[in-house]
Amino acid sequence: LAQAACLYLFGFLSVAHHQNCRCRRIAPSWHASSATAMAPTDRAEQMRQRLAAKAESRSGSASRGGPLLSILPMPKTIVMHGLPMTWFLWLVISVLLSVALLVGNIGLLVAGSTLHAAYFANFSRTDIMFQARVVFLALVVFGALTPLQVLVYVQLLAVCLADVTVGYKVLERLLYCIPANRPENPEPFSVDFLSRVVVEPPQGHTQPFSVKAGAHKGPADFDWAKTRAERRKR
């Protein structure tokens, strides 16, 4: 029995050794074919990693120039009934203006306008929305320091109500006339441009104000008729 067990074990080991050698001969060719098959996948994965790294770097650079306090909601955040945060802020300012006109409490209006401008400064210190709040704050302070307080505050209340009711943004339209605030529209300032800025329909509470560039045809663009037949046709 011991001899039979030894012979059986010896035969099993020899068969296992033979199978192992065979697998070693097949392994290089399998690895080569798998490497060839995986090469496009590896290249695609490397490309995805590069794109992800670029996107992350861009988002990082954007976040460095983004909000100072990320916990604050964005101005265009919809609060309720499709109305954004900007609408509710102008509504609060309208109430404070009414209180200043009726009761004479100017401190709340100045504090509210200051917080209003500071809120938009958290997101951008250069766009038209922030500039409009700064101009509004300056007019509030000007009205508080001059005997024209009632006249100034009535006009500011009309500006706020125009924005709250129909979305007509008076201050943003005036600031849009500055060429630096409209890089997408290099049209020079003119009476026609100003009239189109004034009569442009409201574009909603979440859309920034803009006006399409007018089509002005100069002397170089005039299509002169070169023959008598062409002139007669025209």
Instruction: Let me know the largest β-sheet.
Output: 2 strands, antiparallel
Query: Quaternary state, please?
Result: single chain
Count of strand segments: 2
Number of helices: 8
Helix content: 55-70%
Structural class: mainly alpha
Terminal Cα separation, in Å? Answer: 120 Å
Query: Strand percentage, roughly?
Result: under 5%
Indicate the mean pLDDT. Answer: 77
Q: So what's the overall shape? A: globular
Low-confidence stretches: 26-39, 54-64, 217-225
What's the order of the H and E elements? HEEHHHHHHH
Please characterize this protein's 3D structure.
This protein has helices at 2-64, 85-102, 106-121, 128-145, 149-166, 170-176, 191-199, 228-233, and strands at 78-80, 83-84. Helix 3 (106-121) packs antiparallel against helix 4, helix 4 (128-145) packs antiparallel against helix 5 (149-166) and helix 4 (128-145) packs across helix 6. The chain is an all-alpha fold. The longest helix is centred in the N-terminal third of the chain and has 63 residues, at 2-64. It is 66% helix and 2% strand. It has a two-stranded antiparallel sheet. A hairpin with a 2-residue loop joins strand 1 (78-80) and strand 2. The protein is globular, with a radius of gyration of 36 Å.
